[in-house]
Amino acid sequence: MEVQYSKPVFVGLGIVGPDSLEIISEFISLICITVLAAALGSKTFGEKLKTINYGRVMVILLYFLSWSFATTSAVIVSTNNNNMTSCTLGMLSCDIFYAGSKIVVYAWLIERIHLVTAVKTSRLKTRIYRFHLVLLCPYVIIFALMLAFRNIYLEPDGKCTIGLQLIASVPLLCYDFILNLYLTWLFMAPLMNVGLTSRANWKRSRLYKLARRTLVSSIVSLLISFANVLVVVITQGHERGLVCLTMCTVDVTINAVVVHWVTTNRGGNSKDTRNKTFHNTDHLSAELTFDAPAETGDKQPKFAFASIHDSKSNEDDEDDSESIRSTQISQLSAKPLHNY
Q1: What is the pLDDT of residues 90-112, one digit of tens each?
Q2: What is the DSSP string of 140-194?
Q3: What CA–CA distance (Å, rounded) separates 44 from 302?
Q4: Which UniProt keywords apply (predicted)?
Q5: pLDDT tens, position by position, 25-80
Q6: How confident is the model at residue 145 (pLDDT cuts 50, 70, 90)?
């Protein structure tokens, strides 16, 4: 009896082992994790619970969410191929951690606007603060669209493809760009008004440096986030999973880094600064960074820009009187001062 053998069947296993893009993605994720961990450690070093206010909580929460996303992204990318579960988790991490970091950035910007605009008024009693909280509500709808209209599937070769459909990506692009631009302008306007109406040297003040850093960081964050979401719109939500995760990881890391740059005072030691008595301009710029003195009560210090003008005028008057006094001394001396 002749035994017949069936022909061998070859099953395509798709991608086996990491390819070059996966290795690059893992390397970028590790760099982002390291940078975010260093920023979080630097910002929380020496902090005490009594010095942690609402603005600082937002900054620390931003670091934590960004670090969590970068860590999750590194794990998911390594298991992304031929794995529908990992592919789905990658999309969920983009929806949850990326959207969460954006909400925290918006809340941080709203808090900074409150510090430079509201005087002797609590947050919820301020109309503009309540209005800005209402502006965050459309993001709930956008988040629902991100969960409902998304692409998650495996290519024939096993590659994971994820992304947002146009009905979700276009509103996200418009909302993020317009709200970021509006909040940045609203924060910059009072600071620039102080500089234009001040008699002192505005460009040498801490507020000018803070305003300049805020403007630069806002432009960088705006361009990075716009480019990231624009790629999603152009591809219509059909990106390879590791590419999408890597771009979002770089996006949140750059946003966290620029926030760290803005909220870090490079002029001196923060521990020494907190033990000093601040002028109004220094106190304001310190409160917007991590250098403000510890609060003794529940109330948050408010800053009157009118007192800033008064203090600067007094400084100018003192400088004028000093110059007059030095001129009189030079005229009475046997040897004029300009000959020294």
Answers
A1: 999 888 888 888 899 888 888 88
A2: HHHHHHHHHSEEEEE-TTS-EEEEE-HHHHHHHHHHHHHHHHHHHHHHHHHHHHH
A3: 24
A4: Membrane, Transmembrane, Transmembrane helix
A5: 999 999 999 999 999 888 888 777 777 788 788 888 999 999 999 999 999 988 88
A6: very high
For residue 206, the one-letter residue type is: R
Q: What is the C-alpha separation between 5 and 291, in angstroms, rounded?
A: 79
Closest alpha carbon to 290 in 75, 57, 102, 114: 57
Domain boundaries, the chain: 20-288
Q: Tell me how far apart the alpha carbons of residues 251 and 229 are, in angstroms, rounded to a whole number.
A: 10
Strand order in the sheet with 239-240: 150-154, 160-164, 239-240
- Six token digits for residue 98: 């990326």
CA distances from 232 to 16, 71, 138, 228, 314 (A): 27, 22, 20, 7, 55
pTM over 0.90, yes/no: no
Q: Which residues contact 164 (CB under 8 A, 6 or more apart)?
A: 146, 149, 150, 151, 172, 232, 237
Per-residue pLDDT, averaged over 208-214, amounts to 74
Q: Are 65 and 100 in contact (CB under 8 A)?
A: yes
Instruction: List the beta strands (DSSP E) in 206-259.
Output: 239-240
The average confidence (pLDDT) of the chain is: 75
CATH superfamily, region 20-288: Rhodopsin 7-helix transmembrane proteins (1.20.1070.10)
